[in-house]
Design goal:
By secondary structure, the protein is mostly helical. It has two domains: about 220 residues, Rhopdopsin 7-helix transmembrane proteins (Up-down Bundle); about 110 residues, Arc Repressor Mutant, subunit A. Helices cover about 75% and strands about 0% of the residues. It is built from 15 helices and no strands. The N and C termini lie far apart (about 85 Å).
Length: about 350
Amino acid sequence: MLISSLDFALRSATVAMLLFLAARVWRDFGAAWSGRVTSAFALGSVFYAIASAAGFSAQPLWLRAPIIALSTGDIFVFWIFTRVLFDEEFRPDWRHFIGWLGLTGVSLANCTFLAGIAPNAAWLTGTALELASLVFIALALAHTVGNWTSDLVESRRRLRLFIVVAAAVHGGLFNVLRLTSMGAEPAPWMSAVNALTLAAIVAIVLWSLTRAANADLFAVEQRVPPPAPQSGIAPAAADMKLMEQLRREMAEGRLYRDEGLTIGALALRLKVPEYRLRQLINRTLGYRNFKTFLNAHRIEEAKSALADPAQRDVPITTIALDAGFQSLGPFNRAFKTQTGLTPSEFRREQAPPA
């Protein structure tokens, strides 16, 4: 009885914190994709907190099925959440909505139809959904490990890494436990541990939000590159020298053309500590992400090529590849983010009148 009461209290507190988190982020950062997706993930986590409780399977079908379905779909939102957090140029589109709708729909159909007419098929579908959840968690972790170093805002990097790893470990652990339990109801102690870890994660996230500079946590979309030095910041002599080195490597060496260039490799080339280069690019030059910094140089080269009458017949794909992009899709997205125009529209605007 004590364990069940503790479980209920922890889950109630978690739901309250998640609803507060969703409302606050939407209010302050609903204009940014990162804010919208964070709010959606927090709301989806409310359904997970309810669906993962011991005894939930005893609830009536009309209540149980949609909550389980929305909880399942939240794993897909978690993957999108990590993409948005670590890639400021990423924008969800209709395909991602269809993916979420498909996962949620299959889970809903499994609870409402298959479970009643074909229990074995329902068990297989449920197992497949659990495995799909583990795949999306693995994708989220892979994206986090592969991209978190490009974030130049130190406080945001620490908090984002905690959010993603903690949520992935928690979700992954209990997904594996559900798989190995063969569909059996979780023991009360296991449900209480689940509730405790979930409540701790959400509480730490909320505490961090009250202490961190919120503008550092959620990227605000920009249609123009950040200003070269930030106003009010006078670079020291050593920073001025480093800025000149960096400018020369970018302008003359065109290092940005190397798609695999990392901030660590660039720091080695400039013979400076990585943290110092991070601070320079972020605090002095105004960039929040190393990829955005590189893309700004790539886009400038592409703009020059697109405006050059002598290169009017050069395919846009060739210009994108020459500037350092590996394919046309990322180039088009980055170009429109920085200029507000597609490359074709920009080229037409730059063409001399007939």
